[in-house]
Amino acid sequence: MTRNELRAHLDFFSELGISGVSHDVEWRARRDGSEPFKNEALKNASSKDELGALTKSIEKSATSGTKDVQLPGEALVVLREDLGDCTRCKLHSLGRKNIVFGVGNPEADLMFIGEAPGSAEDIQGVPFVGRAGQLLTKIIESIGLERDQVYIANVIKCRPPNNRNPEADEVEQCLPFLFGQIDIIKPRIIVALGRFAAQSLLETSETITSLRGREHQCRSSILIATYHPAYLLRNPSAKRDVWEDMKRVRTLLSV
Ligand code: SF4
Hints:
Shape: globular
Largest sheet: 6 strands, mixed
Radius of gyration: 18 Å
Low-confidence stretches: 19-67
Order of helices and strands: HHHHHEEHHEHEHHEEHH
Helix content: 40-55%
Structural class: alpha/beta
CATH superfamily: Uracil-DNA glycosylase-like domain
CATH topology: Uracil-DNA Glycosylase, subunit E
Number of domains: 1
Strand order of the largest sheet: 1-3-2-4-6-5
Bound molecules: iron/sulfur cluster
């Protein structure tokens, strides 16, 4: 590692609120070159190549008119078609510009789920692209992954006006599509970002503080609850807690 690379590395961890050098044996071993995953696809293929092949497969399926669903990517396309220009809840008529379905690797071992699109996400139609999204990208990279190796979605797929909290009837209509995504992708680990996502996925009213620090079950995945990146922008001292949660995620992915 060059001096400049080392400086960039330390700057990055400093921005996340992490200081010093890790004495975590597993982390050091991984930095020595061992792989964080058992998933052969992630190990052996560059994710961009993999997604490129997947896209070709989806295009082939679309042009041949077949509805046979064999790959998670194809199943996600079908699910997105089912969602359509959705009017199932009132958010469709409250100023949304785009439905924000989800983005990433359809065969991801790790899935991040937030609350709802914000302004930037609504405009671009992609989840977590604003300031909080940039921080989420750094959080993903902090455990040695690229953003396109994971899958990112929200509980609610349309932006609530003025970023208000989603309402119960909106969640009731939209959540089945998120569960559809989870059942197709079958991630080993789900990271619920913030109170709203954790409570919705676990059907609980427990606080995010009490849900953090332990493993939960969601569908067939292990769920880890942590703070939302937008909360971290307002409360940088909580980055240390998120780092602890992400170390747990990294450990779970490595076994
Ligand atoms: S929030 Fe979900 S259920 Fe409501 S209109 Fe948007 S996509 Fe449909």
